[in-house]
Amino acid sequence: MPEDQLNVGASVIELRQGDITTVSADAIVNAANSSLLGGGGVDGAIHRAGGPAILEDCRRIVARIGRLPAGQAVITTGGRLPARHVIHTVGPVWQGGGSREAETLASCYAGSMELARQHGLAHVVFPSISTGIYGYPVEKAAPVALAAVRDFLVRHGAPARVGFMLYDPHTYQAYASALRALAAASGGIR
Ligand code: AR6
Predict the structure, then answer these.
(1) Model pTM score
(2) pLDDT in tens, 63-80
């Protein structure tokens, strides 16, 4: 088994390093904020690359539901992105670990995958939610992210392909090491 992927039933979790705005998938996930109106980091990059259609969809969603709470997810068009859709989720701001940050982070991944499943999307790609501007230490976030994705796949058997597009080598290494630990702990679930 290559060290950058883990098979879970008929599905696969894959790690790659690079820019998520270049990814062709059914959906990429955005690390947004509760306003859904854009920001810095991967959020800024996605809105810049995808163009105004994404923000128009976001405004319609805000008009309907108001601010999006941390741990929840919504779906829009991918606009001009190679990805067909963007799933926007709001990660927790790191506050030292005692404010249910791990539960909220896991809920971002599970909620995004549930939306993908409801829309029949087979290939979804995540960034490393909360580990940039929101300050979640990546060595702590990576095992939470991967376990949340693995648990969802065990429970639901879909989507078929779940990727992580990790921006820098340090983040990639943190996820690679967490994936090895998860594979070892689960006896390489296949
Ligand atoms: N492709 C993949 N990953 C990226 C890209 C990219 N193009 N650009 C940055 N990253 P962050 P957060 C990585 O700060 O911590 C925004 O202002 C980045 O290196 O984007 O959840 C929102 O509006 C890091 O590894 O998201 C919120 O206000 C990861 O993406 C706030 O930031 C997440 O970093 C959310 O903060």
Answers:
(1) 0.97
(2) 999 999 999 999 999 999
- Set 26, 43, 151, 168: catalytic member: 43
Instruction: From the CA of 45, give the closest atom in ligand 1.
Output: 7
| Helix and strand numbers, DSSP H then E, in the chain | 5, 7
- Ligand 1 atom closest to the Cα of residue 128 is 29
Confidence of residue 2 (pLDDT cuts 50, 70, 90): low
Spatial separation of the C-alpha atoms in residues 56 and 77, rounded to whole Å: 9
43 in active site: yes
**CA triple 111-65-144, angle to 5 deg:** 20
- Is any atom of ligand 1 closer than 6 Å to the C-beta of 104? no
